[in-house]
Amino acid sequence: AEMAEVVEPVEARFQAVQRTGFYSLLYLVQAVGSRGILENIRLTAVSDNMQPAGDTDTDPEKATVTGLLRTIPQEYQNIRCRSVDLEQGADPHLTGKMLLAEISAPIRDKAVAFRGGKRFVQKFRSAEMSAAKFSQKPRSAEMSAAKFSPDTLPLKPGGIYLITGGLGSVGLILARYLAREFQARLILTGRSALPDRDAWPLSLSKGKGADKIRKVQALEALGAEVLPLAADVSSEQQMTQALNEAYDRFGGLNGVIHAAGMTDETAFQLIQQSEFHVCERHFLPKVRGLYVLDRVLGDRPLDFFLCVSSLSAVLGGLALGTYASANSFMDAYVHRHNSMGPPRTKWMTVDWDNWQAEERSASSSPLAAAVNEFEMTPEEGPRAFALALGSGHTHLVNSTGDLHERIRQWVDLETPESPTRLAAVSRPELTTEYIPAANDYEKRIAGVWQNVLGVDQVGIHDNFFDLGGNSLIGLQVISLLQKEFETQVPAVALFEAPTVSTLAKYLRPEDTSRTVAEPAEAEADRLTERRRAFRTPGHHESADQKIAVIGMTGRFPGADTVEKFWQNLCDGVESITQFTDEELLDSGISPHIVNNPDYVKARPTIEDIDLFDGFFFGYSPREAELMDPQHRVFMECCWEALELAGYHSEKYRGMIGVFGGCNLSLYLAKLLQDPLLFEKMDADQIVIGNDKDSLTTAVSYKLNLTGPSFSVQTFCSTSLVAAHLACRSLLDGECDMALAGGVSIRLPQKAGHLYVEGGMGSPDEHCRTFDAEAKGTPFGDGVSVVVLKRLAEAVADGDTVHAVIRASAINNDGSLKVSYTAPSVTAQALVIAEALECSSTEPESIGYVEAHGTATEMGDPIEVTALTRAWRRHTSKKQYCAI
Question: Residue 373: pLDDT band by 50, 70, 90 thresholds?
Fold first, then answer.
């Protein structure tokens, strides 16, 4: 049998009210948007008792409409909204007269209420709060609320506090504050369960739930006693059980912080894309969660009950429509709760400005960027929390910026006069080259940007936000573009197409009447057709399968260019760096290891890995510092390889792929030695700058490369496999050019290796490949990148062809070999034979083979045997091919 929770009458009423209120308004606006209506529209939502005004009751179920009304004009520039709130039981003749006058007038006030024949408008009164209200000033920017007078701050040492969403971003920040300052006893609820405590060591070792376990352990290290519970705040059954467990464990409850809410990025959608099931995801924790908490707490005496609402209820925000509505409900519900009087605890709600998440997602949508500009740091948030909690108010709006100015700009949508061309400033110094607009669409868009941003020049590849634009200015631009092109422009346009060039393509309708394409467009069309031809069935049988190497660069031990590297090979230079004991000790190598007779104090290294022009690639100094040198050097070489091939990534109209790999990030291991780093910095940014998975996609992003972007890791064969995949991508028509390569930089650089008999490492600093004395290799640093293109096109386009790849092949050893790290004669012979067959090359025509050459007692003989076996399929000739 299935069990289902009973839907309480009050919640059933909420759902019914939303059908005629919130969803009715949502679907109406979506219909207007889908019809592409550009005429100015005045939209007035009329209801009764949805706003707390005067002494009348408030109906919070109707308040959700007000949140949506905040966001509609921000996403639909031609719609202006207001709410008119009537009084139940008022004189219908007088009410009708006032309502007619209101809706006939231009929209000035966005929220109007009529009570007792009088007109009320929503206003906000400043409540500047400081620690002066308390017995002592804070000891620093991070408030020490433990020193405040207990008469004003309802927090106590060892207090028992329930935090819904306790391990979420805001809940965790407040939990840390309560743990640090009050050694509180905390009940942290969330939807996912933690393992039993006796299973934590195993979970930490396996990684399952490890992140949340560490968070709880960190709170306990600060002096808190923590009870983490799996309880969905929207489930009355689960929350009742959680409350019972809390009382059994701690014997009471002093305060509640309702911080649960939807944080999944996919739940934040523009109004036009908003769907019923996504809206309901916001309503569950904010609406039903509040109903549930009210019922399960009942008349239990509490020192405080705090709702973590959002400033979006006041300011709205792009893609925050439903979220703002859910928070508007919370504010209205608290007002109604408090109007019921004793014996109930007075609740309070705070419309918080954005909290800076300590673990912010790197992929977070830019749509809420305007809110993020004013976010509070993890230090500022708890200070504001203490000030609010001790203020005595029941409803506060927390704004880190001038609230009235933000309302003027975001809600009233008033904008300053557009800068004139005479007042324009010079284009800022950007990493992108200035390329002027070339066609009518680009010129008109650039003109709008110049006027709004007040800059004298706008290049077609300049990023709107790099020029000084933000979400608010973007709304002005959207409005002007709609008038300029007489077409509906989505509010998201600037985020999806933030340059003049991409925005022109975004806005330009398909014009089938054009017979002559502009040069750049004609080139793009030509390349598109060329790729499409390679994807045609049967094309591979007739097409030339050769790939040209049209550019190459690299940095090697003792050589910072390919030319220098070749010269070193010709001159027999052995580029091995010797290290003194002092250098090794300074690098952190243990004296015990340095003094070990088997420790080899030498290694091939490359120079200047600490020199990186971060600004050139658009990185801040801090971002560049957090990047693994492997990522920095690989990005530099990708840019240099394209330059040497004669191509500019911003000007090339085709698709360029990136295929490459790097070694384990020992730089990240060094960063992790600083325990405070992840508290100070964005953890995701650290991962992006160091993880091998982001090596190639970072290059694609910074160089604006739109072809496939693959991070490859196959140990020693990584670069060759990257080249193989790049060739396949070219032959499959996925891209027009491809970058392929790899990088390996080990840290610290001044470090050797401990020789182990039978291992891969050399007993000294020398590498003796195919030599009777071969004992291993000294593993070194290096990076190399090649630019690949289909040979026929490289010749037709006049590219310099350095070499031709006739074919490549790939396989794996499987398990039929001595050990995991050992090579396989059979597998190597098969893959060599396949490459020969695919290239239609006769082995007798080959005069030189570049081998892997591990210089190990096992690896070298197996490689020679595999080559010989593959050759013997076609020839018995001997002593003619160098290796």
Answer: low
Alpha carbons 630 and 661: distance in angstroms, whole number? 10
Burial class (CB in 10 A: 0-12, 13-18, 19+), 125: exposed
Cα radius of gyration (the chain): 33
Using DSSP, state whether 787 is helix, strand or coil: strand
Using CA atoms in the order 725, 731, 736, 740, what is the torsion angle rounded to 10 degrees?
Answer: 20
Selecting from 3.40.47.10, 2.30.40.10, 1.10.10.10, 3.90.870.10, what CATH number does the domain 547-807 have?
3.40.47.10
Domain boundaries, the chain: 9-121, 421-507, 547-807, 808-883
Q: pLDDT tens digit string along 105-159?
A: 988 899 999 988 889 999 998 876 654 333 222 222 233 333 344 456 899 999 9
Whether domain 421-507 has CATH 3.100.10.20: the reply is no
Q: Identify which of 278, 260, 258, 259 has the alpha carbon closest to the alpha carbon of residue 270.
A: 278
Angle between helices 289-297 and 9-20 (to 10 degrees): 160
pLDDT tens digit sequence for 743-772: 999 999 999 999 998 788 999 888 899 998
For 9-121, CATH number?
A: 3.40.50.11460
Q: What is the distance between the alpha carbons of residues 696 and 700, in angstroms, rounded to a whole number?
A: 6
Q: Which structure tokens are listed for 654? A: 């085709």
Pairing of strands 782-790, 225-230: unpaired
CA–CA separation, 680 vs 626, rounded Å?
12
Identity (one letter) of the amino acid at 410?
Answer: W
